[in-house]
């Protein structure tokens, strides 16, 4: 939470529309929470693990005693956080706050001390502090001595993202006195509130102290739906609702059972499995303008983050949810024209790199996922791979990819005015051209895989050839991907940023260690090292260009071990566990016949990066991407997104049982496993010898048992078997 993970501690359910969590007065987190800041209340929708403050934090509830105070805060102590329940003591007032939920309703319980004046404030217009979201209209009213109804409309994110949230709130005790507020003005005995900064106050008469329960059903569609959603929790006690929510989580978390490992590894595993299911929010049937019969999700933000680990995890343990996500993506494309790479509250947001909905859909084809219209999905990704988009930052691809085969990284004068970097000129060009080129190429191969699955052989050959475009920006002299201008000339230099003045200067030469600012060319959020292995659909092609297996392995060693200095800081290795482009790199040794080296790199990087503390994530959870990376790493295998391939290292646990669709199970047993005995000596799959350091989806999806014999030293297991397939093999 506090280490940049940007997750919230409150109550949620798998993919639930509602999550109830504390919001802090001062926070740098889009999730709304920081441990070192007092809270301003408990709201009902949050983003988890995002890097941008888009908004939410709506319908803010704050319990209070004493004189009525707007903009009040509370210091929390004795926090208890679990997937379906959060509680804390509010120090100044002595109130105990507890929250749980159903999928579309928040459930609150506040225990007030004896002899105080208890009240509950409802801020109808709230949004996450510091976000780009704002309320543009609201209205709310007490309709009885126990119920409030209302709605509030929000615009968010600097785009056309807009939504209205409808709600019905119910107290379990009669309201003794009413107030409304607008701006800084309080209106006693008033039951109606409206405006862009407004809310209601419910006061209660319980002189001996005790609890006040509150339940809030919400909808993005209508008040009627909000009432229906509230009905799910009505008539149940707080404990009954809490137990129902916990049962849902147990059913989900029990999809993978583990034995062995350390206590810390077990905590991290199940925390990560939980975090991997917090987003996206299933808002099916609850959003105006969308067919209630077609699944719809918010927080598809962004697929650049999630396609490598989160979506493949859903394919294994929640295939119906992954199929629903694809139906949602296809529906967006049919209604709005383009597949989203990033979708928030009814609108496209920035695409960080490629058109990675192609990866999600191509991966589904590769693994023969059922439950979606394959022809419609294919036509959607085919459009990405053949038609220039209207704006490569939001929809589709930049046109130069189709004319040049790559996006040009321009010579410095193209970005300058009077010798100085000109942001306006930069904004007018294709951003991060080299990383986008590599990602478009990988997207193309995913489209090719889908075409092959549908028997469209001509398309398959076309898109497979187009997927080789990434090699156009491979520099055989430096052995790195770099940038060419529109005339095919290598660009000699890069913009460096003075972090004191935020100005940019041109530096001549090639520096593989240079990490550009987010939107500064040629790469997104990474140095040339971060993209050095980015043709992941054609690792064999990469090995050949490095000069064979030995040279490739030496280059990987350099990537993980090289000492380098920038701005006076000494660093060992170039691997960033929190950077999505690098997720697969520790596993690439399998392609060169050394799966044992995967073990060293995975165990070292993952156990170093993840901790059981409030600062335990290595970076943004990125909508569950980081958490699902831990889940796969701890299980000892990793998907190659867009292909029917999983690469092996070794698990952290001696026994793993994964529940698959149709009641089938994938068992992994690591015999004699320990922190020392972490290398595979031999293996069997379904009782037959297995000498490959990889397997395919079809090998396990109908139920399987993989048995690994472990030892203290690397063996020759997996060294002579055929490598996983690459695009250039065919």
Q: Let me know the largest β-sheet.
A: 9 strands, antiparallel
Measured as a percent range, the helix fraction is 10-25%
Mean pLDDT: 94
Strand content: 15-25%
CATH class of the domain at 21-253: Mainly Beta
Please characterize this protein's 3D structure.
It is a single chain. This protein is an alpha+beta fold. It has 17 helices and 37 strands. It has a domain at 21-253: Beta-galactosidase, Chain A, domain 5 (Distorted Sandwich), CATH 2.70.98. 25% of the residues lie in helices and 25% in strands. The strands form 11 sheets. The protein has a 9-stranded antiparallel β-sheet. The chain has a 6-stranded mixed β-sheet with strand order 17-32-33-37-34-35, with no helix packed on it. Strand 20 (343-344) and strand 21 form a beta hairpin. The chain is globular and about 80 Å long. The mean pLDDT is 94.
């Amino acid at each position: 939470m506090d280490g940049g993970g940007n997750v919230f501690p409150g109550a949620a359910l798998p993919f639930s529309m509602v999550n109830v969590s504390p919001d802090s007065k001062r926070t740098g987190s889009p999730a709304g929470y920081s441990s070192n800041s007092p809270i301003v209340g408990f709201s009902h929708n949050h983003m988890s693990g995002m890097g941008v403050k888009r908004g939410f934090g709506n319908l803010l509830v704050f319990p209070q005693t004493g004189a009525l105070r707007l903009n009040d805060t509370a210091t929390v102590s004795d926090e208890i956080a679990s997937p379906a329940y959060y509680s804390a003591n509010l120090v100044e007032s002595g109130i105990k706050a507890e929250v749980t939920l159903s999928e579309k309703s928040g459930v609150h319980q506040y225990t007030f001390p004896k002899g105080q004046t208890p009240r509950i404030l409802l801020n109808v217009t709230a949004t996450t502090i510091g976000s780009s979201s704002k309320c543009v209209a609201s209205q709310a009213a007490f309709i009885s001595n126990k119920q409030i109804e209302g709605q509030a409309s929000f615009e968010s994110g600097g785009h056309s993202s807009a939504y209205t949230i409808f709600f019905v709130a119910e107290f379990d005790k009669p309201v003794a006195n009413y107030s409304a507020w607008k701006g800084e003005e309080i209106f006693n005995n008033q039951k109606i509130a409206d405006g862009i900064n407004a809310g209601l106050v419910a006061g209660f008469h319980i002189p001996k102290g005790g609890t006040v329960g509150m339940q809030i059903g919400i909808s993005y569609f209508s008040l009627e739906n909000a009432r229906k959603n509230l009905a799910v929790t009505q008539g149940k006690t707080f404990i009954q609702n809490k137990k129902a929510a916990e049962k849902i989580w147990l059913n989900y978390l029990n999809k993978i059972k583990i034995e062995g490992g350390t206590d810390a590894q077990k905590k991290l595993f199940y925390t990560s499995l939980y975090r991997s299911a917090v987003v996206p929010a299933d808002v099916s049937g609850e959003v105006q303008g969308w067919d209630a019969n077609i699944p719809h999700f918010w927080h598809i933000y962004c697929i650049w983050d999630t396609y490598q680990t989160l979506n493949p995890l859903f394919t294994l343990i929640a295939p119906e949810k992954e199929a629903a996500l694809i139906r949602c993506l296809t529906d967006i494309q049919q209604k709005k024209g383009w597949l989203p790479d990033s979708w928030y509250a009814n609108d496209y947001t920035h695409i960080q790199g490629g058109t990675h909905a192609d990866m999600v859909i191509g991966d589904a084809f590769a693994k023969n996922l059922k439950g979606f219209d394959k022809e419609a999905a294919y036509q959607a990704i085919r459009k990405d791979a053949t038609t220039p988009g209207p704006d490569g930052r939001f929809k589709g691809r930049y046109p130069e990819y189709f004319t040049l085969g790559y996006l040009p990284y321009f010579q410095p004068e193209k970005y300058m005015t009077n010798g100085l970097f000109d942001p306006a000129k930069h904004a007018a060009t294709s951003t991060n051209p080299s990383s986008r080129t590599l990602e478009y190429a990988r997207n193309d191969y995913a489209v090719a895989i889908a075409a092959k699955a549908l028997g469209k052989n001509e398309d398959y050959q076309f898109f497979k050839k187009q997927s080789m475009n990434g090699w156009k920006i491979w520099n055989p002299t430096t052995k790195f991907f770099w940038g060419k201008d529109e005339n095919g000339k290598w660009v000699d230099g890069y913009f460096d940023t003075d972090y004191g003045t935020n100005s940019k200067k041109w530096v001549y030469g090639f520096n593989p260690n240079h990490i550009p600012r987010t939107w500064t060319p040629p790469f997104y959020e990474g140095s040339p090292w971060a993209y050095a292995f980015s043709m992941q659909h054609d690792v064999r092609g990469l090995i050949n260009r490095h000069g064979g297996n030995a040279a490739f392995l030496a280059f990987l060693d350099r990537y993980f071990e090289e000492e380098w200095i920038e701005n006076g800081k000494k660093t060992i290795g170039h691997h960033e566990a929190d950077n999505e482009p690098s997720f697969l790199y520790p596993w690439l040794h399998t392609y060169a016949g050394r799966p044992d080296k995967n073990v060293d790199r995975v165990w070292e990087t993952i156990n170093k990066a993840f901790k059981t503390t409030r600062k335990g994530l290595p970076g943004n959870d990125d909508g569950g991407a980081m958490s699902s990376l831990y889940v796969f790493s701890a299980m000892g295998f990793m998907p190659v997104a867009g292909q029917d391939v999983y690469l092996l290292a070794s698990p952290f646990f001696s026994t793993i049982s994964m529940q698959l669709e149709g009641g089938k199970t994938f068992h992994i047993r690591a015999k004699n496993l320990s922190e020392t005995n972490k290398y595979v000596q031999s293996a069997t799959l379904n009782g037959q010898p297995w000498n490959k350091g990889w397997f395919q989806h079809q090998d396990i999806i109908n139920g399987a048992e993989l048995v690994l014999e472990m030892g203290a030293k690397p063996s020759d297991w997996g060294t002579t078997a055929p490598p996983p397939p690459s695009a250039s093999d065919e």
